Automatic annotation (TrEMBL):
It is found in: Cell membrane; Membrane. Keywords: Cell membrane, Membrane, Protein transport, Translocation, Transmembrane, Transmembrane helix, Transport. Coiled coil: none annotated. Pfam families: TatC. This is Sec-independent protein translocase protein TatC. InterPro entries: TatC. One of its GO terms (cellular component) is TAT protein transport complex. It is a multi-pass membrane protein.
Amino acid sequence: MAFRRARTPEGRMTLGDHLRELRRRFLVSAVTVLVGGVLGWIFYPQVYAKLSAPFNDYKLANPHSVISLNFGNATAAFSQQVSLSIFVGVIVSSPVWLYQVWAFIVPGLTKKERNISLMFIGAIFPLFLAGCALAYYVLPAVLAVLYGFTPAGASNIQQVSEYFSFVTRFILVFGAAFLLPVFLVALNAIGILPASAMLKAWRPAIFGIFVLSAIATPTPDAFTMFLMAIPLTVLYFLAIAVSKLIERRKRKSRPDWVDVSDDEASAL
């Protein structure tokens, strides 16, 4: 097969093989994003209307506010259509490039571990979309809070590029953050991260989640940080619960002779 991974007799890949594999995965992802971007270009009017709807709703609900979106120069409209098309391409092609990221990690696992990890690939895409959907759902509330700081009598005239840059980053960051439990459970399934370790470290983990949320969210306000940190905290404990179930299942299927000490005869 043309894309078959070159391996040594010990089943290992050289650094050059890893780099070539990374390049191939990146090219596959880039092509799918480009194809998705074509769809974004075709449906640009609908995408523009959907993403600008929270802004327009706030404007209608606050007619006294002087607030508008503006294209700054002659090329701004074209540039905005290109960037939104790429954004659509990233969302539409997410099953492919998320799989490519996962598949690049899989060669480092044993056959049994790869079989276990396949169960979690199916959860990646729904969780990514759930994060994106949550971001879009809370976006009107976020805009209302941020625009509420505008002093009375002042105008809030935004460049279209700045508004959509904020919206797309906001959506993508939420989508990426929701992948956290998948990777935690996957690490547990292959025996790297026990559920007991995750539970023992819940305090620093939650602190880290809030710090990550503060850094990752595109706004400096605490409101947006909490919108991301609270769901991630819930997902963290959900990952612990799922990991405990996996470990319990492993213990039940574990043969008794494995736990026999070296100086005792096993049942085999």
